[in-house]
Design goal:
This protein is mainly β and 155 residues long. It is built from one helix and nine strands, in the order ββββββαβββ.
């Protein structure tokens, strides 16, 4: 399902591991590359890109949005053909996920592709404990720790 003015089109999207290994793994680096086509020269001003990540039931579990993290706007030129969105540590549990891609400029929808791609995330030793997270306990792997203290002032 695709909509938008078409002034910029997301030609394709590729999700890959930075390690060069095939497949995506929890806890490993991730790069999502969106290849762009410009239908106008110069490209529209104020360009932003967003990637929605949905679980297998269609629930939105994450949003990667250049308007939130920057740079704002994306520094594209007529020579820019791709935008890389990187994560140092993929925080998704093992499973299948769908990506929705959204490109806009000044509030105008340029390209919006629902269910543009699917990714499969493999399990890994995310926490470095030798134990694999169970796949049925939710889609997110959060960074946390337990600390014990003998402080009684917290009671």
């Amino acid at each position: 399902d695709r909509s938008g003015s078409g002034a910029v089109r997301i030609a394709s999207v590729v999700a890959s591991s930075d390690s060069g290994r095939p497949g995506l793994q929890s806890g490993k680096p991730l790069c999502i590359t969106c290849f762009l086509e410009f239908r106008s020269v110069p490209p529209p001003l104020g360009l932003s890109l967003a990637i929605g990540i949905d679980d297998s039931a269609g629930n939105r579990i994450a949003l990667l949005n250049s308007e939130i993290t920057g740079p704002v706007p994306l520094p594209v030129t007529t020579r820019t053909h791709c935008v890389d969105v990187t994560m140092d540590k993929l925080q998704l549990a093992q499973g299948h996920y769908r990506l929705t891609l959204f490109c806009s400029s000044g509030g105008e929808v340029l390209d919006w592709i629902k269910d543009a791609a699917t990714i499969e995330v493999e399990n890994s030793d995310y926490y470095g404990t030798g134990k694999l997270p169970q796949g049925n306990q939710g889609p997110l792997l959060l960074n946390y720790r337990f600390n014990c203290t003998d402080r009684i002032d917290l009671l």
